[in-house]
Amino acid sequence: MSKRLTKVENSTVVSAAYDCSGAGGRKLVRLDNGWLCCAVINGTIDWRVYVSKNDGKSWSHAVTWLTAITINIALASYKNTLYLFCTGSANAYFCKVDLRTVSWPWSVTGVVNPDIGQTAIGIGCSITADKNGVLHAAWCSKNSTYPDAFNIKYNKSINGGASWIGATQVTGCGTGCDLQRPCIVLRKDNNPIIFADYAQSNYKAIIYAYYTGLVWEATSHFVYGYSGNTYEQDSPCAITDKNGAIHVVWHGKDSVNTGVLNVRYSKSVDNGANWSPAIKLTSGNSYHQAFPTISVDKYNRLCVLWYGAIATYPSIWQIRKLIFNGVWGGITE
User: Fold this and answer.
1) N or C: which terminus of the chain has fewer CB atoms within 10 Å of its end residue's CB?
2) Domain-by-domain residue ranges, the chain?
3) Taking a C-beta distance cutoff of 8 angstroms, is the pair 148, 139 a contact?
4) Rounded-to-integer distance, Cα 252 and Cα 291, Å
């Protein structure tokens, strides 16, 4: 039986001004042995992994990775192997480590490049491992083919990251639009699906592209968005539950709440063919509710966490939470 997470109050990962923000890519994962791994970044060249062996009560510095320029970071795991993925300096970088067998803190070695030679790196990257340990990674960049817009790229590895099959251009957005903040998960057919936010002057939307097993389908697939929608829609985060339903959260504005961000949610029970009408998990507030992340436990209960302020403490942003167990519960801090 898998181990249940014990609630921990006010646990500090590291007492320093590190950053763990970012869209799409997971910054916190659990290994099969129960260890929690959290990625943080210091400036642009130094990012680290901290590990807790006691359900988050205490944390140790486990990994240091120095790169020329780091813009985005993401973690994934398979059994007890930790996978580290980042983008920056016009490239994508990857390495892996078994934290049970190295001296801490471990300095990254064995780095490979799932992609090189991009002209610019956009916001967000994401990586996941399927049930067989095959790795799937997504990021956004500009290149000589699409020099004026950020587009989504993808690569996979069937040998634990030792080599990659070759980067694929998933989207082909031209001048005047950008696709950023990708989040990659697996559909119930074990093929990847990538979510991202789409921005054009008169169009804001949450889009997705999926792999059929033969080709990428990436044209006019929307979770949320419509012509003339100029309200910000950003930072999708997705999860697939044990029944194969895909759940997506993001933050955005609308004609009712024009000045503040709210958390939205939609799901698909047919592999992404159709999506439920988007609902606002937060509303009627005066302060931003943003950067949501979603997870599912072994009982198929959803948990949505996000970053938001409340009227009682408007200058202090808090981690807020909603649980879905048949119905959405109340928001807690």
Assistant:
1) N
2) 19-186
3) no
4) 10
